[in-house]
Amino acid sequence: MSERKSSRGRKRTLTNNFRHNCDFTVTPDMKQKFDDYGYIIVRGLLDKEELELINQAIASPDGVLKHRYSLDDPEGRPLGRVIWTHPGNDITGVLARSEKVAGTSEQLLGGEVYHYHSKLLLKDAETGGRHMWHQDYGYWYHNGCLRPDMLTVFIPIDRCVKENGCLQILPGSHKYGRIEHVRKGIQEEADLSRVEAIKQQTSLIYVEMDPGDAVFFHCNILHTSGPNNSNLRRWAFLTAYNKATNNPIKKHHHACYTPLIKVSNDAIRKCTVFNDLSGKEFIIPGTNSYIIKPTEEQQ
């Protein structure tokens, strides 16, 4: 994790880094850091063997990459993605149902969660586009989720550094509540005047991570990521969870409450299912209400 001074010249060292081990549990300190700053980083959430299995599944020609599509950022640079609604039976689903991912999310949010959706975000070398400043709840609010009782787990498949467009966040920005967003193309951008004002109160953090690390972040934390101008690919696996008590009030392209059957962490290593994509319900642009045309007010 790297950091820079805020415009007021302050610099803080945020000890939001934790190390995963076989006895990993969410400690009171971890929960407090998540509540205070809106994120925690868990180094080594996936070990080398687990990461290799996930890589094999993603690389399989009959795996989830069959459903890859690309959308452009405001500068016309492509952002590859694969999005699915339910975890399914393959190893990516086992990962999303594991205690160290889903169970940790439950402890951070303080109650039962269900799988809201998972995705791959694919920034290819030298061409990958950027994500504008936004809150995930900027999108999910419009899906009928009444409360921001939601989070995302971001797990790098490749090393994530400044050069290839790593995640950038404003610690503590989740406490400012939901900010108005404006649709720009296919993305939603947070009110930049608010973003700039919040930057005066905190320090921008570049979340640099190695493959298998993870950052758990609250749905209202402001975040962005730059384009990938480097020769380093930047692929990442993300899973979003919603509290069971926050069931959306309308059906939409992501999941309404569906009980999540968690599995032990060793189920990841034991899983040999790479290509069974049944039940995952992939997002297909132009269908299942994912591609939403801007309204007159948003244009």
From TrEMBL:
Bilayer-spanning residue ranges: none
Cofactor: Fe cation
Gene3D superfamilies in UniProt: q2cbj1_9rhob like domain (2.60.120.620)
Pfam families cross-referenced by the UniProt entry: PhyH
Protein name: Phytanoyl-CoA dioxygenase family protein
Organism the protein comes from: Sinanodonta woodiana
